[in-house]
Amino acid sequence: MRRLRLAPSALISAAVACLVLDGCHGGRDCISPTSSDAQGWASPLQTTLLGDMDGDGLPSVSDAISILRIVVGFAELTPVADCDGDGVGGVADAIMVLRCVVGLLDWPIGYGGRLGPDGQWLLLVSAGSFTMGNDGDVANERPAHEVSLDDFWIGRCEVTNEQYAAFLNGAVSPDVENWLEVSDEDCGVELVGSSYQAKDGLEDYPVVEVSWHGATAYCEHYGYSLPTEAQWEYAARGPSGSEYPWGDVWDADRCCNTGNRGPGGKAAPVGSYLDGASWCGALDMAGNVWEWCADWYSATYYQVSPVENPPGPDDGVARVYRGGSWLLGEDFCRAARRVSGAPAITWDDGGLRVAQAVEGQ
User: Fold this and answer.
1) Pair 154, 30 in one domain
2) pLDDT digits (tens, 9 = 90+) for 272-320
3) Which residue range is the domain that position 300 belongs to?
């Protein structure tokens, strides 16, 4: 067992001192998270731990230094550096790593996440049961019924324009024009020459004008799936079956909705509403943009739905959309709210979130 006597405050001072030394501008003891030596970031197919900047699976002073390099502008922010999940790489993140080094904080740290192949943070949603649906006035939400699900992963945030553009550049298919309505002015992705890119300033906004086929193609390209309707609702409301991701009381300030729109009067950058997180840490599950689910839609499916891992109807003419959007308010942002759309349709407030089965289940 390692016995260390330095407190985190002493270690952070030492880390800062190392940061300003010449030796900290290169070499393996001060790895930039964007360098080819940052194994967890350069090889996103691997499971990556928060704070593990050098990818060796252990907390170290060099990991903290790499985070501090982001703070002072020597390196770009990456998801691995955001240990506290606030969307910013800061001194607090470095301190969390150092607390792990001296045994004051359990390792690994974080909000149960790992890095996916597209740069998405995936959150582990633990197996459990909940009451799906609602016995209220909306017919397609009835009856409320018990559902049990295996463990699964879900994207912490909606897929962004930048992520979708990267996918299009790596995809070889004649169906691209059926995936994303690039010609629509509301689409945040554009074709420049022979390459797709996010429109300037919209890199971190959720991709919209994407069809169900386009959402599915994205997921399959990276080994994901769209969440089933049951998985989506469980990630949004949890075992307690809350009305909204954050609880049972509507709060317009916790999500992007018609009374609290984003900077351009529509959607907001993904992850903007940390106070709106669901029980598993997923963001923007109420408002911002509608999210495609894997299921065919049926208004009466709940009457015959199996308890264990319901897959949705065997066929249909429309697919499920969940979560509400910037265009809508309180009622449509409820976690139980269901709408549908033809698989080929695209909306200026419709996007996607990824899911993935846990290996072996």
Assistant:
1) no
2) 999 999 999 999 999 999 999 999 999 999 999 999 999 999 999 999 9
3) 121-158+208-357
Indicate whether 144 and 99 sit together in one domain.
Answer: no
Do residues 146 and 61 share a domain? Answer: no
- Residues whose CB is less than 8 angstroms from the CB of residue 69 and which lie 6 or more positions away in sequence, other chains included: 19, 30, 32, 33, 75
Question: Could you tell me if residue 195 is inside a domain?
Answer: no
CA distances from 185 to 126, 211, 313, 325 (A): 40, 16, 34, 18
What's the CATH code of the domain at 302? 3.90.1580.10
Check: CB of residue 132 under 8 Å from CB of residue 322: no
DSSP code at position 299? T
62/137 same-domain check: no
**How many other C-beta atoms are found inside a 10 Å radius of the C-beta of residue 168?**
21
* Pair of tokens at residue 253: 């300030």
Residues 217 and 343 in one domain: yes
Q: For the chain, how many structural domains are there in total?
A: 2
Q: Is residue 296 part of a domain?
A: yes
Question: What does the alpha-carbon distance between residue 248 and residue 96 come to, in Å, rounded to a whole number?
Answer: 32
Residue 194 Cα to chain centre, angstroms? 28
Cβ atoms of 141 and 133 closer than 8 Å = yes
- How buried is residue 235: exposed, middle or buried, by Cβ count under 10 Å (0-12/13-18/19+)? buried
170 assigned to some structural domain: no
312 shares its domain with 226: yes
Whether residue 341 lies inside any domain: the answer is yes
Task: Please tell me the distance from the alpha carbon of residue 353 to that of residue 356, in angstroms, as a whole number.
Answer: 11
Sign of CA dihedral 221, 285, 265, 268: negative
Alpha-carbon distance 220 to 207, whole Å? 17
Decide: 212 and 234 in contact? Cβ < 8 Å: no
pLDDT tens column, 146-166: 999 999 999 999 999 999 999
Question: For residue 47, is pLDDT > 50?
Answer: no
Q: What's the CA gap between 190 and 98, in Å, rounded?
A: 42
User: What is the value of pTM for the model shown?
Assistant: 0.75
Residue 284 CB burial class (10 angstroms; 0-12, 13-18, ≥19): buried
